[in-house]
Specification:
three-stranded antiparallel beta sheet, Metal Binding Protein, Guanine Nucleotide Exchange Factor, Chain A, 2 helices, alpha+beta, globular, single chain, six-stranded antiparallel beta sheet
Length: about 140
């Protein structure tokens, strides 16, 4: 069981030019500009391989495949982060809604949103853009 209280150290700080060079256009749009990929279009939406999902921007460990579930929402969904401190949350009032945005704590990249309508044991649904993730298969 991972230490869910471990703190992320060494923030990743890069210029926008560096981010643009290192990320694909879709990764840049999602991680740096808070875009959202179209529902059911992401690489990991229907991927059921075992592994660890890390941030596509900095490699920070974010989610484990055993917490992934099919929510039917169109994006990969997880019940809990692999390490709680690797995820930051902020209030998001864009698009006429009040939501909780989920960010990578190491590079501040936008990952998606978390909602209180998930299954047990947490009751949470971390709805995450595939473009923000990289799967490291087990």
């Amino acid at each position: 069981m991972p230490d869910t209280k471990a703190r992320t150290t060494d923030k990743v700080i890069k210029s926008e030019e560096q981010w643009r060079r290192e990320l694909t256009p879709m990764q840049y749009a999602v991680l740096r500009e808070k875009a959202t990929e179209r529902p059911f279009s992401g690489e990991y939406e229907h991927d059921h391989r075992a592994g660890t999902y890390v941030c596509a921007g900095c490699g920070n460990v974010l989610f484990e495949s055993d917490t992934k579930f099919d929510s039917g929402c169109g994006w990969p969904s997880f019940t809990a982060p692999a390490v709680e401190s690797h995820i930051d949350e902020e209030r998001d009032m864009s698009h006429g809604m009040i939501r909780t945005e989920v960010l990578c704590s190491k590079c501040s990249g936008h990952l998606g949103h978390v909602f209180p309508d998930g299954p047990g044991p947490t009751g949470l649904r971390y709805c995450i853009n595939s473009a923000a993730l990289k799967l490291e298969p087990k």
